Amino acid sequence: MSILADSVTGYLGNASWIRRMFEAGGQLKARFGAENVYDFSLGNPDLPAPPAVAEGLRDFAEHAGEPFAFGYMPNGGFPWLREKLAAHLSTEQGVKLTADDVLLSCGAAGGLNAFLRAVLNPGEEMISFAPYFVEYGFYVANHGGTFKAVMSRKDTFAPDLKALEEAISKKTRVVLINSPHNPTGVIYSRKELIALADLLENKSQEYGRPIWLVADEPYRFLAYDGAEVPSVLPLYPYAVAISSFSKNLSLPGERVGYVALSPRLPEKAELMAGLTLTNRILGFVNPPVIGQHIMAKALGSQVDLSVYAARRKAMAEVLREAGYDFQMPAGAFYFFPKAPGGDDVAFVNQLLEERVLAVPGSGFGCPGYFRLAFCVDESVIRNAADGFAKARAAVK
Ligand code: PLP
After folding, report:
1. 343 Cα–ligand 1 center, Å
2. pTM to 2 decimal places
3. Ligand 1 within 6 A of CB of 185
4. What are phi and psi of 74, to 5 degrees?
5. Are strands 334-335 and 257-261 parallel, antiparallel or unpaired?
6. Atom 8 of ligand 1: nearest residue by CA position
7. Spatial distance between the Cα atoms of 272 and 274, rounded to a whole number of angstroms
8. How many C-alpha atoms does 270 have within 13 Å on its Cβ side?
């Protein structure tokens, strides 16, 4: 008999694909040397944080000996920082936000959990488009909800609003989108977002309760060739943007993120009170002190995007040359090509034979594809060309 909760025993027995690849990669690296393994399995930003991050740390260090420098604070973060963040996000999102419209969280993951805890009753449902970031299902289950995936449109991975309309029921409390998207790199257009907002307005009316629209957007900063990443906040009163500094500042270990509410939301004060409470009672208590000081200094800075752009180009060349079928990512740092032969798990194993690590689409609720994260030096991409070509050629 397990000492753990049944759900946790189940999760452990069914390790995620990313975890399995991580372990397989460890074995290959021990056997062949890390430089002979081409690891595209993890979305862990490898670029150094911009200089403003170290400056923020140094500034804070000068005050670290003062009383309460590391003290408890309001559960939504330092009020002065919320004000600063609101001004920054007002420009970014194209709406007028105040300190009362933004809450600081422990990363986007902490923000998503605080939000779901605040709005979901047990048995209620969150819908997202597949492929999807696999943690969403766990986050919803944390709060007694159920996660439902609706397949994106075939090949383009645009949101399939017809399928979403059919999937929404009276149990649906939240629809979550992620743009720029992990794992496909797709960016949802303004037209698609307006149509989505219209659909949710209608469905909310039909069921007599608002359905929330959550935009999970930690990759907002990474849009290539000047692509626009439209904000949902002006489009729908029950819209919430959740994000973090994990990717744009290469800061995922420091856990700073935020939840921003649509200024059109009639019950803004009520939601913010709920979020402030859930940020506390989930055990986050408040966002990290050091991370907030870093962020105060680094707001508006970001890692060198030209490096990601060059890698995207290199990866496209390598994949094209080897004969893969893929869509160029418009944003984020992933490719999601079709698995040659159709069986994504078999093909990822084929790549492993060539010491190339990828994650099967099955791990994102979308079999038949595989994900490549380009958080690696361009030389790793170029050096993997041979392995990509051999694995492709091995499948008829
Ligand atoms: N959402 C998506 C789509 C992600 O890819 C990630 C991290 O990889 C997160 C949320 C969580 O990010 P954070 O580090 O801000 O919690």
Report:
1. 27
2. 0.96
3. no
4. -55, 145
5. unpaired
6. 43
7. 5
8. 5
Q: Which atom of ligand 1 is nearest to the CA of 243?
A: 15
Q: Are 203 and 210 a contacting pair, CB within 8 Å?
A: no
What one-character DSSP code corresponds to residue 252? G
Cα(298)–Cα(2) distance, integer angstroms: 46
Q: What is d(CA 249, CA 298) in angstroms, rounded to the nearest whole number? A: 8
98's tokens = 């105040």
Complete DSSP assignment for 75-124: TT--HHHHHHHHHHHHHHHTS---GGGEEEESHHHHHHHHHHHHHPPTT-
ipTM exceeds 0.95, yes or no: yes
Q: Are 216 and 243 in contact (CB under 8 A)?
A: yes
Domains in the chain, CATH or no CATH each: 6-49+303-393 (3.90.1150.10), 52-298 (3.40.640.10)
Cα–Cα distance, 128 to 147 (Å, whole number): 8
**Beta carbon of 178 within 6 Å of any ligand 1 atom:** yes
Distance (Å, whole) CA 312 – CA 329: 8
**pLDDT tens for the 396 residues of the chain, in order:** 789 999 999 888 877 777 778 888 888 898 999 889 999 999 999 999 999 999 999 999 999 999 999 999 999 999 999 999 999 999 999 999 999 999 999 999 999 999 999 999 999 999 999 999 999 999 999 999 999 999 999 889 999 999 999 999 999 999 999 999 999 999 999 999 999 999 999 999 999 999 999 999 999 999 999 999 999 999 999 999 999 999 999 999 999 999 999 999 999 999 999 999 999 999 999 999 999 999 999 999 999 999 999 999 999 999 999 999 999 999 999 999 999 999 999 999 999 999 999 999 999 999 999 999 999 999 999 999 999 999 999 997
Q: Can you tell me which residue has the tokens 């992933």?
A: 334
